[in-house]
Amino acid sequence: MVLLKWKSCIAAITFTTISLAVSKSALALSLYSVTDLGNLAGEAYSYATDINDSGEVAINTLGRSFFYSNGSLKTISPLPGDNQLAVTGINNLGQVVGNSGNSNNYTGNNPFLYSNGLTQPLPIQDAIPYAINDRTQVVGGASGLGPFLYGDGVATSIGTPGTVAYGLNNLGQAVGILNSGRAFLYENGQTTNLGTLPGDTYSQANDVNDSGQVVGSSGLTGVNDSRAFVYSSSTGLQDLGRLRPTDLFSTGLGINNLGQVVGFSGTNNNFFAADGNSLRAFLYSDKTLYDLNNLIAPSSEGGFTLTAASAINNNGQIVGRGAVNGELHAFLLTPISSVSVAEPTSGVPILSFGAGVILFAALKRKPDSKSAAIQQRS
């Protein structure tokens, strides 16, 4: 059953090396405690998709979806008649969006809003909602409308079929990918093509903060050879690079109102791999890219290898997925202290990259497995 589209597809990899010089200085960074949300769910495969400023988290597992708050999980039920679901976004009101379906009689993606313990349908046919803001506006992609903006009971198309909206801020600005394979920013009825980094042919935007800063990836062909970027109207696209010289791609998935970015960097195009050998979650802060695994407090390691960070709230809490004991678990990072970290003094190699996106192409299944699972933005 087709439930939830990845934001990427397999692409060829090419190499072009440039360097980014960084100055030597000391930065005050937080160390983080790790909460294993996968252990709370009691399943071997789970990932967190979004977090709000209260630390509430939307989580998917192989068979279920959860709302995490104050140390406990609540199961989110699919819509009546459906037996599978995926959750994608959460706002500061604790409202969650997602979609459900019936694996025995699949008739399309059924978008829903979960609020106060109730799952209610959204009046959009065969659609996947990806983000919700504090005005209860929702964006996503639908087979009929294309990219949509939903609010006050009405869904409005904001583009052409094949275009998908992935992120939304509280001002109603939306971002995503055009059907031409370019990142876009939508505001006040106007769509701006954000273009690509120099030499690239592909880009996608994944999130936007309340200052209009956009995060995503740009590449030669797609996400599998990509570099993360941050965009603003004053600077254009800024290349964030990759964590390690050997990494083949990086992508930015979330940004908070402080301009801090999270995502992942690595070499393994199985973005949901549980071995933890080739993927690393990153934090971009103060113009520097950090491996989040190096910022875990020693007392809180718990055997985790953080492989991807999907969202960061305005308090600096981060959610995503990581490998632990051969399983893939959702995690929550919470800042607990500050340390001084010296920036690297030498150039950091950056490689060119790429990937493509096709709406409604992922099954609810674990990679390299025949068992059901929902996958959400790489």
Task: Tell me the layout of helices and strands.
Layout: E1 17-20, E2 26-36, H1 37-41, E3 46-51, E4 57-61, E5 65-69, E6 72-76, E7 84-90, E8 96-101, E9 110-115, E10 118-121, E11 127-132, E12 138-142, E13 146-151, E14 154-157, E15 164-168, E16 174-177, E17 183-187, E18 190-195, E19 202-208, E20 214-219, E21 226-232, E22 236-241, E23 249-255, E24 261-266, E25 279-285, E26 288-291, E27 305-312, E28 318-324, E29 327-342, E30 348-351
Antiparallel strand pairs: 1-30, 2-29, 3-4, 4-5, 5-6, 7-8, 8-9, 9-10, 11-12, 12-13, 13-14, 15-16, 16-17, 17-18, 19-20, 20-21, 21-22, 23-24, 24-25, 25-26, 27-28, 28-29
Task: Describe the 3D structure.
The protein has 378 residues and is mainly beta. The chain is built from one helix and 30 strands. The strands form eight sheets. A four-stranded antiparallel beta sheet has the order 2-29-28-27. A hairpin with a 2-residue loop joins strand 25 (279-285) and strand 26. The longest helix has 5 residues, at 37-41.
Radius of gyration: 19 Å
pLDDT under 50 segments (min length 5)? 1-26, 341-377
% residues in beta strands: over 45%
Q: Terminal Cα separation, in Å? A: 19 Å
Count the helices. How many? 1
Shape field: globular
List keywords for this structure.
378 residues, mainly beta, 4-stranded antiparallel sheet, 1 helix, 49% strand, globular, disordered N terminus, disordered C terminus
Short account of what is shown:
With 378 residues, this protein is mainly beta.
